[in-house]
Amino acid sequence: MPKRVDHEERRTQIAEALVRVAGRRGLHAVGMREVAAEAGVSLRLVQYYFETKEKLLLYGLQQLAGQLGARVAERLRAAGDNPGPRATIEALLRESLPTDEESRTFHLVYTSYAVLSVTDEALAAQPFTDDPDAAEDAVTRLLQEAQDARLTAPDMDARGEAAGLLAMSAGLGTSILVGQRTPDSALAVLRLHLDRLFPEGGAGPSID
Amino acid sequence: MPKRVDHEERRTQIAEALVRVAGRRGLHAVGMREVAAEAGVSLRLVQYYFETKEKLLLYGLQQLAGQLGARVAERLRAAGDNPGPRATIEALLRESLPTDEESRTFHLVYTSYAVLSVTDEALAAQPFTDDPDAAEDAVTRLLQEAQDARLTAPDMDARGEAAGLLAMSAGLGTSILVGQRTPDSALAVLRLHLDRLFPEGGAGPSID
DNA sequence: ACCATGATGGTACGGTCGTATCACGAAAAC
DNA sequence: GTTTTCGTGATACGACCGTACCATCATGGT
Fold first, then answer.
1. CB distance from B38 to chain A under 8 Å?
2. Residue-wise over A73-88: b if at least 16 C-beta within 10 A, else e?
3. N or C end of chain A, less CB within 10 A?
4. Which of B28, B101, B131, B198 best probes binding to A when mutated, by most A CB atoms within 10 angstroms?
5. What CATH class is the domain A64-197?
6. At the topology level of CATH, where does B66-197 sit?
7. Protein-contacted positions of strand C (CB under 7 Å)
């Protein structure tokens, strides 16, 4: 047999090129040829590792979803439980805001996928329900911890608040994306909400 | 001179077809020919009234933004001030949720435009900053009224809370769109937030 | 009655897209 | 050393897209 190439590595390389192009020119405008050029390979190679464009998009989505999951997990682990639930949640939500250029690209492409998945049934809707559900679970857990530690109101609906928090964070992210709001003002809005959720005095050390 | 046709009416008719097609197959997939077929006119006519596709999209966006503004204004007028600020805000935000098929199409296409506007500089970003700003002003005003009537905390940051409320509403709308959340559960989350904003006892009659 | 002109239909053109086909190099297996 | 098979390149094909061009019809002004 001839030289064996790590398929998964190539696929990742190409998928990363896809994400870069999509972030620059919009997911709707990416073509196989442009992805190939961005990845530094020939068009044929893109076809070789992903037989069809649909599969390429799907793989790109999965990779993006994986990155998001990994990023959130890392945040959770890095922050640990030491700074207190409030700071952990704040760090988590801040991560999910398109602040720097990288996360901006990430959010743009992810949102593009989401919009496409509504009409293009080929793009599985799983990542758009499973991942948010996982995030909701995580935030819910953190809120419950805070509740157990008497940091929040005893009658707080942790799951509902988590859902609201994440929805607000997502909405703020979109606002930043379209240029309506600055990352700083979005963060301020988020903090305002968290301040009401965590009555003064019980908050852990603020990270900034 | 030959028969004169109301250009604005025709343009509206074609733009409505555009929105219908975009809601069905995705904004990225709409072509001039399909829009023409949906509107019941020939391709040439679409070209005649909108010289280029970009102008067609722009017109469609403006019309969509106008519809949104009109819908919100109507809500504000219909609800009036009689049910109290809380109920008015709730009605406002509920309107901005993709509940029925019509508003679902509306939100999908509007979101598609928003995503496109990030990379396609041709699509003016104004509607994506002006309209939300107007909505924020309206909600801020309502919150201030409520604050003056001692329905909310005296130290509430009306503008910040309005921004958060709208962001959460937008995020919930997207969740509904991608099938992660049902309209009912989204509404419940919204009410949960409003309940905390408006302490019990001061709320006006609930509308349902 | 007869034009001038707005409205409309039909169709062709250049380009790009995703995909398929053909061909070749190179290295592991025997 | 030959053969088989993976990896890679170049290129062609058919479809569709947005746009442009040309012809025709209908009608209001004179």
1. no
2. eebbeebeeeebbbbb
3. N
4. B28
5. mainly alpha
6. Tetracycline Repressor; domain 2 (1.10.357)
7. 4-11, 16-21, 25-29
